[in-house]
Amino acid sequence: QVQLVESGGGLVQAGGSLRLSCAASGRTFSSYAMGWFRQAPGKEREFVAAISWSGITTYYVDSVKGRFTISRDNAKNTVYLQMNSLKPEDTAVYYCAADRTTAVPTTQYAYNYWGQGTQVTVSS
Predict the structure, then answer these.
(1) Residues in CB range of 106: below 8 A, 6 or more apart
(2) Which pairing describes strands 10-13 and 118-123: parallel, antiparallel, or unpaired?
(3) If you ran DSSP here, which 8-state letter would residue 115 be given?
(4) What is the pLDDT of residues 13-31, one digit of tens each?
(5) pLDDT for 41-69, tens place per residue?
């Protein structure tokens, strides 16, 4: 079983930055694609960013492109989401997800393992 634990959320002023971390268990972390999703109150869960097992391929939703950066450190079994130039509309619970695939899924239905989420609140 794979366990994912997010951290790094909090309250930040618009224009500020946060770095989310997702620590994963297991000996095969490097073989998993990793993704970040978010869910705001009253909204559906949406894709934010994803990274391949190799770390070479990344995808971002248009609304965060140029502001967010996903990365991974397989030696530490950790994936990161660096969030810069934050906007109030970025406020949501952020979830990390993992799946053993060489692809880079951008839909939540492709991911089998999920963290519990971390709250990000961006004030105006």
Answers:
(1) 35, 47, 50, 59
(2) parallel
(3) -
(4) 999 999 999 999 876 677 8
(5) 999 999 999 999 889 999 999 999 999 99
